[in-house]
């Protein structure tokens, strides 16, 4: 883990490195765009035949094996699950569901003028696809994080896809009552959900993280099927002046083990703390090959000239995960996917059991959106109802605006209501 200082003179190289991080973007998927495009077009044109060909080649699905996982198979996985893990799944699901329930937007009505009623109605998306990765690690937690908000939103049809799904993932699906689960992954799974095949009916929106091919495929289908976001490699930033070096280092290593491309950054004006964190990371990363690769490639400790500069850089980075010292720090945090407050708030707790979603914006996307939530699975429908008095009050205003824009038909559609009142 490299340490750079912005305190001394001649910090041009250090500041250029910080600027590079601020301007970063997830580019890992770009190399996968060409292959993903071929796969998508093949599945779109060839349906199940192409989907099965890729499922056999890339996901190990034999011709005798059904693409769709039966509810019996999911239930058997649940029954074979150890009691301790069952309880862990139940606790995590309970917290995720409770958080999603509180996130759900409300319906309301408002009267801006007499005789005028406007309001908001909340309607679930009809069908969604939840992508659950199954590469380096089985991720039943991601199934919980994608399916539960959709359930809370009231989505009628929830499709789950995962390549070579682990028994733990199948067990989680059974616990949630999932009924439509396919053992497919990669760009071919995204194509099947976006366009449909003989076996997989298309969905209205796709959510969930994945590898570069999944991300590339989501970008390519985005104009035909809604997506949640383009998620890149995991990011962690810890901004601290007096935190516990061991805990900070442990969190940096924990998030770094997700992916060799993960970004792990410590920011502080406390040079001694930064040195201790770097040493602690070096010690802890030795037994973790993936984390070691990520820390070597993208691990950085930034020593700033002032506390304010540390905070400014943090907001410019807009990290996926952010840890700060205390609740007082929330006042200056403007851009982050999820914020962990204090030395006891280990970031992996948020990956599993806290309740907030662990599917979060990366590559600075936290400047414009938050993590996956129940809001991603609903749509707000506005309503407007006028009575004669309302038309009399607001109609002339709307007519004046329409005539100023030269839209005579707009003005006439309002005027005819006013004239109808006079007849």
Largest sheet at a glance? Answer: 6 strands, parallel
Number of strands: 15
What is Rg? 25 Å
What coarse outline follows from CA principal-axis ratios?
globular
Helix proportion range: 40-55%
Based on secondary structure, the structural category is alpha/beta
Distance between the termini: 81 Å
Strand order of the largest sheet: 1-12-11-10-13-14
- Mean pLDDT across all amino acids: 95
In percent terms, what proportion of residues is strand? 15-25%
What is the number of helical segments per DSSP (H or I, 4+ residues)?
A: 16
Low-pLDDT stretches: none
Highlighted features:
423 residues; alpha/beta; 6-stranded parallel β-sheet; 6-stranded mixed β-sheet; 16 helices; 15 strands
Give an account of the 3D structure:
The radius of gyration is 25 Å and the shape is globular. Strands 1-12-11-10-13-14 form a 6-stranded parallel beta sheet, sandwiched between helices. A 6-stranded mixed beta sheet has the order 2-7-6-5-8-9, sandwiched between helices. With 423 residues, it is of the alpha/beta class. It contains 16 helices and 15 strands. Helix 2 crosses helix 9. The N and C termini lie far apart (81 Å). Helix content is 46%, strand content 17%.
